[in-house]
Amino acid sequence: MLKAVVHTPSFLYTPFHTREIYIIVLYMKTYWIVSIIAAVAVIAGIVALNSSALETGDELKRAANYKDASYIINGEVVTLKNGMAEKEAAPGSASKIITRYFGNEILHDFDGDGREDVAFLLTQETGGSGTFYYVVAALNTADGYKGSSGVLLGDRIAPQSTNMGLGNIIVVNYAVRGQGESFADQPSVGKSIWLLLNPETMQFGEVAQDFEGEADPARMTLSMKKWIWINAKLDDVEIKPKKEGVFALTFMDDGRFAAETDCNSMGGAYEAREENISFSSIMSTRMYCDGSQEADFASILEGAATYRFTSKGELVITLESEGGSAVFR
Q1: Of the candidates 241, 245, 90, 126, which has an alpha carbon nearest to the alpha carbon of residue 174?
Q2: Which of 59, 98, 141, 170 has its CA 20 to 30 A from that of 240?
Q3: Arithmetic mean of pLDDT, 18-40
Q4: CATH assignment of 217-328, given 3.40.50.740, 3.40.50.2300, 3.40.50.300, 2.40.128.270?
């Protein structure tokens, strides 16, 4: 059973922006009476509109191609043309706000109408040094592609992959900089965000990842996503990756696998029958990296015996060595 981070009793969706102030200006014939009514709408359950856009979906331009559709980015309607939009940062300013199609797209029927919709990443440069990354979606409707509100991932991040999780959940994997690191440093800390699109409001909600009862193990498969190594127990010693999100394991439906480590890339074949699993024909690039944990990761693959899924959305591989196991998420 999936559970989202909810601030509403009727939806699984968490709006990222809420219009909270309504101003009524009354004009009278002989003099002005200005009455400002501030209604702070903090009632949980209001699915509000994204900043200055009055309609999340219906007022936006629909297009035959999602690279020409309109989206809401940072509270403003942005209409792409061939995957790009450009406007002045301020009237008369030489600085431009440039929004571009980035990629990492994934095709899926998000509203159940039988048409293939799309989710992907956009970037926006606002005239300074930053490049901001957003997740958006576009529904393939009878009237054209209908764009969503964007979810900000961060400034100058390193996108990795976008995959479908359980049901309609979008899993976006990317890397950010560690605490105290500057923008001169390359992003090296892996992060994932799970998003669920509300086709009615065209807004995303974030799905929590870290509690029991979130996932249905019976519906989980090895090839459903890229699995990130979380920890392992080898010879009664607990091991955790020094760099979060760097070690990853991807299963293909044709019996091949690919792996990423803190040094080399790996690949080969795997066989999974019932609860048993084994890896074979393991190959790797041969770059040397001081302090790498690649050998520990390789020993997990070489010693794999069985696997199972948990209600936390985890893949647990049990090793042939007594008591050994590895957790992926």
Answers
A1: 245
A2: 170
A3: 31
A4: 2.40.128.270
